[in-house]
Amino acid sequence: MNRVGFLVREAVVNLRRNALVVTGAVLAVFISLSLAFGALVLNQIVRVNTLAWQEGVHIIAFLKDPPEGGLDVDGQLALLAEVQGWSEVKNAFYVDKAAAFEEFKEIFANEPEVVDLVNPAELPASIRIELADIDTYRDVRFRLVANPAVRRVSSLGDQIEQLSSLSRILNFLGLGMAVVLGFSAVVLIANTIRMAIYARRDEVAIMKLVGAGNWFIRVPFLLEGLIEGVLGAGLAVLVVWVASRNLESVDQSIPLISLSVPVEFVVRWGVVFILFGALAGVLGSLLGLSRYLREADSTNPPPVKRTVEV
Questions:
Q1: Does this model's pTM top 0.70?
Q2: What is the pLDDT of residues 85-113, one digit of tens each?
Q3: Domains of the chain
């Protein structure tokens, strides 16, 4: 127990003696992991909005009137039943002329003069389609366009596909940034530990001369790297969490886009980043110590025991 207390005190002493260098290492970890965690949160926002856009009506097929070569109401309902039977379709429903006019009035509720100019009989009936998989929208669109009873087909497939592509790109960039910045944090902590060892090189050399093992020398520096990594990662998680909470205050002012991030998501990944910061600190310390101790062992070989014959 006394030995453990001694090692912890040594780690704290190291942090005090090298406060400026330690602050630099903590800030390096903080900046690196803040950028990585921020990219992850941004990707989550894009993913949530992509899923939201993928729900609901994906395709609208506007139908021709009988004078234009279209179908009567019974024929349009028969076409609806056919569309509902397609394997790509999750749900489909029919909107007649009266319902289309009511929808038109809701859209232009603030412009009554526009509503007065429209004849309800001129608005086309339509079939609204929700797909089981948004990636199949091209096949469904092609089949509807080929139907002579369909006047025009409108879909949000292109916009949703763009959001999906953006989500994939952000996933790739977020992963790459996390790897690069995580490696940078490890290297910076390793350099910090090497500087701390260099400042105490005489003390370390004396400890080795009196028989202290490498692990006894390593532990205080490992604790130092651990503390630096946890502090930097903890600050990064705190800043990103505060920023994500502030996004919710402006979420209501931006229509059609959700900026809120679930608390569970931030907590779960926050714990992961703190653990990563601790691991980065330990790895950085091991890298810095291993090289120094190898150099110390090569320059100061252990004394050769000699036997004296009597």
A1: no
A2: 999 888 899 998 888 888 888 877 777 78
A3: 2-53+161-297 (no CATH), 59-155 (3.30.70.3040)
Backbone angles phi, psi at 122, to 5 degrees: -80, -15
Tens of pLDDT, residue by residue over 50-86, are: 666 656 778 889 998 887 778 888 888 999 999 999 9
Q: What is the pLDDT, as a whole number, of residue 234?
A: 92
Instruction: State the DSSP string of the chain.
Output: -HHHHHHHHHHHHHHHHTHHHHHHHHHHHHHHHHHHHHHHHHHHHHHHHHHHHHSS--EEEEEPPGGGT---HHHHHHHHHHHHTSTTEEEEEEE-HHHHHHHHHHHTTT-HHHHHT--GGGSPPEEEEEESSGGGHHHHHHHHHTSTTEEEEEESHHHHHHHHHHHHHHHHHHHHHHHHHHHHHHHHHHHHHHHHHHHTHHHHHHHHHTT--HHHHHHHHHHHHHHHHHHHHHHHHHHHHHHHHHHHHHHTTSTT------HHHHHHHHHHHHHHHHHHHHHHHHHHHHHHHHHHHHHSPPPPP-----
**Phi, psi (degrees; rounded to nearest 5) at 214:** -60, -40
Distance, in Å, from the CA atom of 221 to the CA atom of 196, rounded to the nearest integer, reads: 8
Q: For the chain (length 310 residues), average pLDDT per consecutive 10? A: 62 68 78 81 74 71 84 89 90 89 80 78 87 82 89 77 71 73 72 68 68 69 82 90 77 59 84 88 75 60 48
pLDDT in the model for residue 306: 47
